[in-house]
Amino acid sequence: MTVFSCKAAFDSLGLERIRPSHAHASQECPICLDPLAVHPIHNTDPSSILHAAIRILACGHVVGVECLETWLSVGNTCPTCNRILFQAASEPITQQDVNNILHALSPMFGEDRVMGEVARLMVWQAEENARLRQIHEVEMAKLRATESQVRDEEFKMSSDDFLDSDEDVDFGEGDYMDLELEEGEDTSDCVE
């Protein structure tokens, strides 16, 4: 299943930069097999073969940034699992394309038959584009829901946020009983 409708959408929403951390396991880029910079590095040697890492959100695979850019310039799949990441760019059929097809195929198959196939192809292309837009919208809704859930989780109160006993906070108990009642007020409802 295609995750994003185009490469631009994938580039902006389908990737997550990896922040170097000591918690990450050492990894090699599956494309070039050079080590990825997933640990904090104090030496910034420009001749180092380590390169920045990026995670493909659709499948979770981690690759080198430059390698992925090169890989996706000629394809539309994950280099590790071959999952389709975005719809490959397809050019719409132009009038010149139709004329060329008619000129080449109508002597063999007849103009009506060729035009029927071209019309079917155009309908299929329109339906496919509509399907891809719908998939993209669903994926965007899922992404927004996930982001919202993550934000909500950040602000959710945990058991550590609650006080364990009444001794931790002095609410000034008894102070409210010192209030003077105005003359004639009914005190039968008051709890002492």
Automatic annotation (TrEMBL):
Cross-referenced PROSITE patterns: ZF_RING_2 (PS50089)
Domain RING-type span(s) in chain numbering: 29-82
GO MF annotations, alphabetized: zinc ion binding
InterPro entries to which the protein is assigned, alphabetical: Znf_RING, Znf_RING/FYVE/PHD
UniProt cross-references to Pfam families, sorted A to Z: zf-RING_2
Keywords of this entry: Metal-binding, Zinc, Zinc-finger
Name of this chain's protein: RING-type domain-containing protein
